[in-house]
């Protein structure tokens, strides 16, 4: 495996290999000394053209806990703000001899394009409204751990709802691909204005109502209303959005026993998800964050350590 650009490129065996190694990496996180020598001497650059908290910091921690050197370059404060092109920025970092570039960019397809220009391994940390493969992998990892903790089996055969601003979401695209590869069935819930074009070819169920969906799902994944990507009126008002699609305190009771609530963050508390839901016993929101470091350790190991062997 040279790059991680899309879930579509991964075989089921590769997905299991990444998730299984992430399980071992998870143990490192709970140790007082969080260091493995696996990637000593390797260099990872986080190149972020868009804002991020958890993705960037978890990639940085993942690299450091594997003993790689990690640096952060963000568009703000770099030569990008002096007008340098994306290609020149990438070629500059590549010329320094870095081993992996973790890149987030507003352009769908930008990271795959970058992979054609550089010698380093490219990791897609979110490209526009296209994909966010490590997010889907960490979601699957957190779901797997929730199921195992509660004696509920594996993802195979489970039902997952993904509700919210799906048209702008790279998380939904990666998750649908991954969950289907792992044998889950997916139901997307959104008003027609927030459904991605072509969704009928995705092999998922679609509902415009959340209430009838909730009792059937093992995982209720809520996605953020991405105001920064919205130019027009996608729904009449926040009040109406919450009434129809928010995971409110009242709706929690509709979930079946053992169902979990996921959200990739950042959350708009009180909009797509209530605090009652986000902080409930069934919420795996913070497990997703800790799985994020473990999964990114595993991904870096698969791309960089494998190359050496
Ligand atoms: C997501 C993203 O950036 O695509 N966040 C994340 O990586 N945890 C989702 C979002 O921004 O809503």
Numbering strands along the chain, what is their spatial order in the largest sheet? 7-6-5-8-9
Q: The CATH topology of the largest domain, please? A: Rossmann fold
* Ligands and ions found: N-carbamoyl-L-aspartate
Shape-level CATH architecture of the largest domain: 3-Layer(aba) Sandwich
Instruction: Flag low-confidence runs.
Output: none
Order of helices and strands: HEHEHEHEHEHEEEHHEHH
**Beta-strand percentage range:** 5-15%
Average predicted confidence as pLDDT: 95
Structural class: alpha/beta
Separation, N- and C-terminal Cα atoms: 12 Å
Short structural summary:
By secondary structure, the protein is an alpha/beta fold.
How would you describe what is shown here?
The protein is α/β, with parallel strands linked by helices and 309 residues long. It folds into two domains: 7-132 and 292-308, Aspartate/ornithine carbamoyltransferase (Rossmann fold); 133-288, Rossmann fold. It has helices spanning 12-29, 54-65, 86-95, 110-115, 133-149, 170-181, 238-245, 249-252, 275-278, 285-308, and strands at 43-48, 69-74, 100-105, 121-127, 159-163, 185-189, 205-207, 219-222, 260-262. The strands form two sheets. It has a five-stranded parallel sheet, with helices on one face. Strands 2-1-3-4 form a four-stranded parallel sheet. Helix 1 crosses helix 5 (133-149) and helix 5 (133-149) crosses helix 6 (170-181). The protein starts with 11 loop residues before the first helix and ends with a helix. The chain binds N-carbamoyl-L-aspartate. N-carbamoyl-L-aspartate binds at residues 54-55, 126, 132, 135, 170-171, 224, 226, 264-265.
């Amino acid at each position: 495996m040279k790059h991680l650009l899309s879930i579509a490129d991964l075989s089921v065996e590769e997905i299991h290999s990444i998730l299984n190694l992430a399980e071992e990496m998870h143990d490192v996180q709970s140790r007082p000394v969080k260091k493995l020598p696996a990637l000593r001497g390797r260099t990872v650059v986080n190149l972020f053209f868009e804002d991020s908290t958890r993705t960037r910091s978890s990639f940085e921690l993942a690299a450091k806990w594997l003993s790689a050197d990690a640096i952060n370059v963000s568009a703000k404060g770099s030569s990008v703000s002096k007008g340098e092109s994306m290609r020149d920025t990438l070629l500059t970092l590549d010329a320094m001899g870095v081993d992996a570039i973790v890149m987030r960019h507003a352009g769908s397809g930008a990271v795959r394009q970058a992979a054609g220009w550089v010698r380093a391994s490219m990791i897609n940390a979110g490209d526009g409204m296209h994909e966010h493969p490590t997010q889907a992998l960490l979601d699957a990892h957190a779901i797997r751990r929730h199921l195992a903790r509660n004696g509920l089996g594996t993802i195979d055969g489970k039902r997952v709802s993904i509700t919210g601003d799906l048209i702008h979401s790279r998380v939904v695209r990666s998750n649908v691909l991954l969950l289907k590869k792992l044998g889950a069935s997916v139901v997307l819930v959104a008003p027609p204005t927030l459904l991605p074009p072509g969704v009928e070819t995705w092999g998922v169920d679609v509902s415009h109502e959340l209430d009838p969906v909730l009792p059937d799902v093992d995982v209720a994944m809520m996605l953020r209303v991405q105001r920064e990507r919205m130019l027009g009126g996608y729904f009449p008002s926040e009040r109406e959005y919450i009434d129809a699609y928010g995971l409110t305190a009242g709706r929690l009771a509709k979930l079946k026993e053992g169902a979990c609530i996921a959200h990739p963050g950042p959350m708009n508390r009180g909009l797509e998800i209530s605090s009652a839901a986000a902080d409930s016993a069934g919420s795996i929101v913070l497990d997703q964050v800790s799985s994020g470091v473990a999964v990114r350790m595993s991904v870096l190991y698969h791309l960089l350590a494998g190359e050496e062997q």
